[in-house]
Amino acid sequence: MLKIIKNIFLLSIVFLFLSCDSSSESKSNSNWIVNVKIFSSLTCPHCADFHGEVYKKLEKEYINLKKIKFEHVSFPLDLAALNAEKILQCRGDAQINFEFLTEIYQKQSEWTAGSDINAINNSIKSIGKKFSLTEEEMNKCLNDKNLEEKILNERIKAQKNYKISSTPTIYINENKYEGKRDYKSFKKAIEKLL
């Protein structure tokens, strides 16, 4: 009987040790990663400005060092933005290709200037070709009702859960960022969490 009690005691100690170890590990992981969610429309000039001004610097200083997880959350405000988002998500990658996203934002004034939606789609597709998407793939994505529904449902969910009233809306670790959208101010907000 004494032997059974000793074994139970030893197992309890081991279990307690493992529990302490795993909780401290998850705690340390949550301390070094900051989750930044940007709810944006690809036709929004303010979204493009934020991406160009802030994202590229974040990438060098924080994202590549795995201190920040940056999420582009699609919130299309019009058909052109929806179609651009379809092309952006055409490959169905879990993680958006941020080089492709950057190119879409950098060329926003060009592709949004089309005379109608077909001209706009063709301009977006010319960007997609630079990222090894074929015309056939992109046409399939533009006509993909499941992809469209996924994007629109993401927008509805964002509206419901985050009360988005304009783009870009930025959340850092699930708290709405209300500060200036320049790099210096944004960096200061992030540094407080690292």
Please explain how this structure is put together:
The chain is an alpha+beta fold and 194 residues long. It has one domain: Glutaredoxin. Helices cover 62% and strands 10% of the residues. It has a four-stranded mixed β-sheet with strand order 2-1-3-4, sandwiched between helices. Strand 3 and strand 4 form a beta hairpin.
Q: Give the CATH superfamily.
A: Glutaredoxin
Structural class of the helix and strand makeup? alpha+beta
Tell me the total number of β-strands.
4
Count every helix, treating DSSP H or I runs of 4 or more residues as helices. 9
Any chance you could write out the topology, listing elements then pairs?
Layout: H1 2-32, E1 34-40, H2 45-63, E2 68-74, H3 79-88, H4 98-106, H5 108-111, H6 117-129, H7 135-142, H8 145-162, E3 169-172, E4 175-176, H9 183-191
Parallel strand pairs: 1-2
Antiparallel strand pairs: 1-3, 3-4
Produce a short descriptive summary.
By secondary structure, the chain is of the alpha+beta class.
Keywords:
194 residues; Glutaredoxin; four-stranded mixed sheet; globular; single chain; 4 strands; disordered N terminus; alpha+beta; 9 helices
